[in-house]
């Protein structure tokens, strides 16, 4: 049996593949930068199929922050106590799962736009160019955390329409101190920031939201997409809740740069399941 996982900053999607049978479950997102062994243990034990893990002989874990060997080793150490003694554990960056799900075995460019953001060039079934993905403080343009950060900043400084200001005040009922605690002191501030992007769905047609989305998407395209050599020669795939929900706005913004997508999906897990069923 094979266990595959695609983990972003907010949610991890898992699938146990046993020939033609698939067992799906979700946990909180797992990151080697924001999580620890205790967090992983607690998350994985929520699976209704936890007892099956001891029968797994191959684990493919694709996760945010897993593009460094020491972080890959860290994830392996967290997984090891929950699986068969001799199970093979592959840990790769979540860009690999995004590429497999959107491009299969074809060359192309793939971007992630979820809680965080990233872009890579995919050639010969290998991710060969990753220079973005700097995290929610230094980068992640166009992501949920990035959009949420700008919304929160505008909210705190009264730089948004009164109707949206009132909506956020009543819905979140937070004080400045609580916001600072969540951003600067408590775990997973990126997830907290991304939660503020909810207003983009609630007020999608408002000029404030449209201008904000286009501005952050342009920043993402300029900083990450346009640095890819000969990008106009490749198909582009996108993965993540932001790119999926706001696909119209993203495609329109890409068109400003004479770019377009061939595939946009919310989560890679379905594509991964299909791929590994075809490539056992």
Describe the overall structure.
The N and C termini lie close together (10 Å). The protein is built from 13 helices and ten strands. The mean pLDDT is 89. The strands form two sheets. Strands 3-2-1-4-5 form a five-stranded mixed sheet, sandwiched between helices. It has a five-stranded mixed sheet with strand order 8-7-6-9-10, with helices on both faces. The chain has a domain at 2-99 and 269-278: Nucleotidyltransferase, domain 5. Helix 3 (94-103) packs across helix 13 (269-278), helix 5 crosses helix 8 and helix 10 (207-225) packs across helix 12. It is globular. It has helices at residues 37-44, 69-79, 94-103, 135-138, 144-156, 162-172, 176-184, 189-195, 199-202, 207-225, 241-245, 247-255, 269-278; strands spanning 2-7, 11-18, 21-28, 58-63, 88-93, 108-113, 117-123, 126-129, 236-239, 263-265. By secondary structure, the protein is of the alpha/beta class. A hairpin with a 2-residue loop joins strand 7 and strand 8 (126-129).
How many helical stretches?
Answer: 13
Shape, principal axes of CA atoms:
globular
Characterize the largest beta sheet: strand count, sense, and whether it forms a barrel.
5 strands, mixed
State the strand order across the main sheet: 3-2-1-4-5
CATH topology name of the domain at 2-99 and 269-278: Nucleotidyltransferase, domain 5
Structural class: alpha/beta
Query: Beta fraction of the residues?
Result: 15-25%
User: If classified by CATH, what would the architecture of the domain at 2-99 and 269-278 be?
Assistant: 2-Layer Sandwich
* Uncertain parts: none
Task: State the end-to-end CA separation.
Answer: 10 Å
Rg over C-alpha atoms, rounded to the nearest angstrom: 19 Å
Binned, the helix content reads 40-55%
CATH homology superfamily of the domain at 2-99 and 269-278: ATPase, nucleotide binding domain
């Amino acid at each position: 049996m094979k266990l595959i996982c695609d983990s972003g900053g907010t949610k991890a999607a898992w699938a146990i593949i046993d020939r033609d049978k698939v067992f799906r479950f979700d946990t909180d997102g797992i990151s080697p930068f924001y999580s620890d062994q205790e967090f992983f243990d607690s998350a994985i034990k929520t699976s209704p199929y936890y007892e099956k893990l001891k029968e797994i002989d191959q684990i493919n874990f694709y996760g945010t922050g897993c593009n460094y060997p020491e972080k890959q080793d860290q994830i392996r150490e967290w997984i090891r106590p929950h699986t068969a003694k001799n199970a093979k554990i592959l840990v790769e960056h979540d860009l690999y799962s995004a590429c497999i799900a959107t491009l299969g075995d074809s060359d192309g460019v793939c971007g992630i736009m979820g809680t965080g953001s990233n872009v890579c060039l995919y050639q010969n079934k290998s991710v060969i160019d990753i220079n973005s993905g700097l995290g929610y403080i230094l980068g992640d343009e166009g992501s949920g955390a990035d959009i949420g950060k700008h919304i929160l900043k505008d909210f705190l400084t009264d730089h948004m329409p009164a109707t949206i200001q009132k909506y956020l005040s009543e819905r979140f009922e937070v004080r400045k101190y609580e916001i600072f605690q969540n951003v600067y002191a408590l775990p997973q501030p990126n997830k907290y920031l991304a939660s503020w992007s909810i207003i983009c769905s609630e007020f999608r047609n408002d000029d404030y939201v449209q201008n904000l989305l286009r501005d952050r998407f342009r920043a993402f395209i300029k900083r990450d997409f346009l640095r890819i050599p000969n990008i106009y020669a490749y198909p582009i795939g996108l993965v993540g809740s932001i790119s999926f929900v706001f696909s119209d706005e993203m495609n329109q913004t890409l068109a400003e740069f004479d770019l377009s997508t061939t595939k946009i999906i919310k989560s890679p897990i379905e594509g991964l399941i299909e791929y590994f069923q075809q490539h056992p």
